[in-house]
Amino acid sequence: MNIIDLRSDTLTHPTEAMRTAMAQAGVGDDVFGEDPTVNRLEKLTAERIGKEAAVFVPSGTMGNLISMLSHCARGDEVILGDQSHIFLNEVGGIAALGGIQPHILPNEPDGTLNLKTLENSIRARDLHYPPTRLIALENTHNFCMGSPITPEYMTRVGDLARKHNLKVHVDGARIFNAAVALETDVKDLTEETDSVMFCLSKGLSAPVGSLTCGTEDFIQSARKWRKMVGGGMRQAGHLAAAGIIALNDLVDRLKEDHANARTLAEGLSSLKGMVIDLELIKTNIIFFSLKHPSLSPESFMDGLEAKGIKILMTHPGIFRAVLHREISSSQIEQVLSISDELTR
Ligand code: TLP
Q: What is the pLDDT of residues 127-139, one digit of tens each?
């Protein structure tokens, strides 16, 4: 059966060009700093993101973790959203490994944090309080409908952070989706930040890898943490080679995924029992729920699965579908017609 897998953009396979580049990559021991392809990827990344330096890591989770460990000491506090991937889905690593206390604020539906609430949550100097060190944002915001966070919002957060002497980190796992959706240079989304992590292994289709970016000093510290948590890789150039192609050739096409997400969302919204907020859909992630008189969410999911369509149920009754390079517009039509049959 032809499987249509909408569970995540992490499922994308490397392109033919990536496979060839990976096979032919010049490699060396990256822990010695001697892998020419990793060095090339890190340099290219720093230029693209607009930071002094970058470090290649195996996963987005590790990229976020070593960023937070570099910014914060044990007992420091980081302000972040209650829907953020760092808070929800990274195994509590910052607390377990860094002794960093998350100060959680409610995310707005568009993934931002209310700026008044943010400013009010910064700790005063007091014997009893942990010092606030960092604000961590997410762009695009995965669990807030893949919302892209705008340069204007970033400027306001940057102003606030400077006023209170705080650092700003962005979990930009899908920051290139944000740049493409907002039709802006990715640097406009990063210039107000002290550190940025983004993933090559999601919509950009590389098989493995993420990068953390910041100042030279920050990246030196991040490299040390990477080594400590076991992320020092050896001939990683075989992986980095795919990353270079991802950055050079696969960014612009993300707009196709965004267009497919819209088509899917609009089609679903007209089906019986579907609840979906079309306003918020701007990138490749859609969330929707089913409130149907005779079809339970579980039966809907089973019905899709029986026809080879996979989606995620992230909470009881709430579905996520993620569009990516391996989902064509004709497959979207197929998903819509099968969903129509099931909900009729
Ligand atoms: N997200 C995955 C799952 O963990 C939910 C997905 O399928 O979306 N930041 C953000 C915003 C992410 O969405 C993810 C992965 C990560 C960080 C972590 O990246 P990895 O999986 O490489 O550790």
A: 999 999 999 999 9
